[in-house]
Amino acid sequence: MKIGFIGLGNMGGPMAANLAKAGHDVLGFDLVAPCPDGVASAVSATAAVTGADVVITMLPSGAVLRSVADEVIPAMTTGPVLCDCSTVDVDSARVVAAQAQAAGICALDAPVSGGVGGAAAGTLTFMVGGTEPAFAKVLPLFEVMGQKAVNCGESGAGQAAKICNNMILGATMAVTCEAFALADKLGLDRQKMFDVVSTSSGYSWSMNVYCPAPGIGPQSPADNGYAPGFAAELMLKDLRLSQQAAETVDADTPMGAQAMALYATFVEQEDGRGRDFSALLPRLAARRRG
Ligand code: NAD
Predict the structure, then answer these.
(1) What is the distance in A from the centroid of ligand 1 to the CA of 61?
(2) Of the N and C termini of the chain, which has fewer Cβ atoms inside 10 Å?
(3) Which of 30, 55, 169 is the pocket-test mutation for ligand 1 (most atoms within 8 Å of CB)?
(4) Pocket-forming residues, ligand 1, beta carbon under 6 Å
């Protein structure tokens, strides 16, 4: 397929490289990042999308997505799919999809989970909103860049799935770290705590797969000085998107709101920026109540 790829940063770069490696004709554009091996460089976003079968965007925010969409949609001929893989607010995903549809272009919101490691290894999970024919057209590309793609429903459903998942993840990681810090103060050995919780009703991905305590459970960023992994500021971004969405639809999400406030303090007032989101454990372990 002929693919236009806009946004070649930490995630987009390796995703575009994997598509090129699989034999697709990929034309890339980024304001700053260089094109990875195998990806041809376009002089502008509009040049990257002209004549493409599928246009993929991997951008930092909904505002940037909206401005890129304004620029490229008029340059896309009828028939292609505009597939945004960024994590953005549900409203931006829906506005861009409507704008594309009005121009005769199918749109998908297809945010990912799996991080930079998953992007490089081609093992991402795609959560997709949009029509079935558009999903079917892009599925072979999802299969190159990832190991699973779920069609979640109409436009915006992919972003909704992503922020709900990450709201669970943020709150679960926070309470897992709290529980380790409490266990320390109660004199309970961390390994024993893991042995019990990982096989009891408190188990979770945060405990069992990505344990925030160094030297315990499978390898995780905790074993690497809390280098990310999944950076605390990216978790904060997703928690903010979840709370923004909750406000829009008047949903009561008190745990998500608490997790957002905790990560905001950690990232913006403490030393959380640039550290893995599981680095809440040393932060909490060093603190007293109140
Ligand atoms: P990044 O900042 O490394 O990459 C974004 C790229 O977009 C940059 O290279 C930037 O130059 C480019 N860009 C910005 N404005 C542009 C424009 N107008 N035209 C062309 N290029 C433009 O970010 P990333 O880590 O690759 O993340 C991308 C998206 O994926 C974000 O929405 C993020 O929330 C999401 N995400 C990231 C991770 C992760 O672990 N990094 C995991 C899941 C989802």
Answers:
(1) 8
(2) C
(3) 30
(4) 6-12, 29-33, 45, 58-60, 64, 68, 86-87, 112, 115-116, 230, 234, 237
pLDDT at residue 78 greater than cutoff 80:
no
Model confidence band, residue 77 (pLDDT cutoffs 50, 70, 90): confident
How far is 260 from 231, CA to CA, in rounded Å? 14
* Helix 157-185 × helix 190-197 angle, to 10°: 140
Helix, strand, coil tally for the chain in percent (to 5): 50, 15, 35
Q: pTM of this prediction?
A: 0.95
CA 50, CA 59: separation in Å to the nearest integer? Answer: 19
Provide the 10 A C-beta neighbour count for residue 205: 14
Q: What is the mean pLDDT of the chain?
A: 97
